[in-house]
Design brief:
This protein is 11% helix and 46% strand. It has three helices and 19 strands. It is elongated, with a radius of gyration of 30 Å.
């Protein structure tokens, strides 16, 4: 009997502090409570063959600095390797980011569009229109290394902006090609920014006429390229992507 009493007394001693208060064993707080995650995409439109780095942001922070897993519904349109999305074929897919413990996730729609093929245009077209231009993209000077500017006529690539310099003057030379000297139509200048994976275009198309030249070295034609859609989710954006997909090469 006395051993039972000693055992009970020992257990009571373990559950009390030096002050005699009972110590309460509480559940450990959940470090993931209130944490959210968002995929960081300045844009979700990527050209075939390009690679886009994938990143996420945690609010307020990543509790355990663990890895993020990426899921794709198929690997025909794109694939993910080393936290990078590699665009393969034109199409749309949902990219899913999942925290390493599977507690939280985020999904973004990614559109892969066809490459703008401007190779050998001068060999298959006998006539052209020349534009001597000064180009700005979203209010900033055009960067020919990362920003591809292409002229489209009736949905087809018809020319490409090339950076030039003469007499100390830097300018863009845009030659817009045509099969016929009687060809007419509208020129739409579009820009694909590979550093931010964003799309831009001029607000007003240019009338196509063979022979005339727009701009001179002393008076360059101003080309202001603006984001094609502000939220990337409206009907105009969908129409534009359809236009890209259905362009003739």
């Amino acid at each position: 009997m006395k051993y039972l009493i000693h055992t009970i007394a020992f257990l009571l001693l373990l559950t009390t502090t030096a002050c005699g208060d009972f110590f309460l064993f509480e559940d450990e707080s959940d470090i993931w409570d209130g944490v959210s995650m968002r995929v960081l995409c300045d844009s979700t439109y990527v050209m075939e063959g390009d690679t886009m780095a994938l990143n996420v942001a945690f609010t307020p922070m990543n509790p355990d600095d663990g890895s993020v897993y990426w899921l794709l519904p198929d690997t025909i349109t794109a694939k993910v390797r080393d936290n990078k999305l590699i665009a393969k074929n034109a199409g749309e897919l949902d990219l899913v980011a999942i925290s390493n413990n599977g507690r939280i996730s985020d999904t973004v729609r990614v559109t892969v569009f066809e490459r703008w093929n401007t190779e050998r245009l001068e060999y298959s077209n006998m006539h052209d229109m020349v534009i001597f231009a000064h180009i700005t993209v979203d209010g900033e000077e055009w960067d020919s290394e990362t920003q591809e500017v292409v002229a489209f006529v009736n949905g087809s690539p018809a020319g490409k902006a090339v950076e030039k310099e003469a007499n100390g003057i830097k300018y863009a030379l845009i030659r817009v090609f045509s099969y016929s000297d009687e060809y007419g139509g509208l020129i739409s200048l579009r820009c694909y920014d590979r550093s931010r994976f964003r799309l831009f275009r001029i607000e007003r198309d240019i009338e196509f006429n063979v022979s005339p030249t727009l701009g001179t070295l002393s008076n360059l034609y101003q080309v202001d390229l603006q984001p094609y859609w502000p939220m990337y989710k409206d009907d105009d954006a969908d129409d534009y992507i359809d236009d890209i997909f259905n362009s003739e090469y």
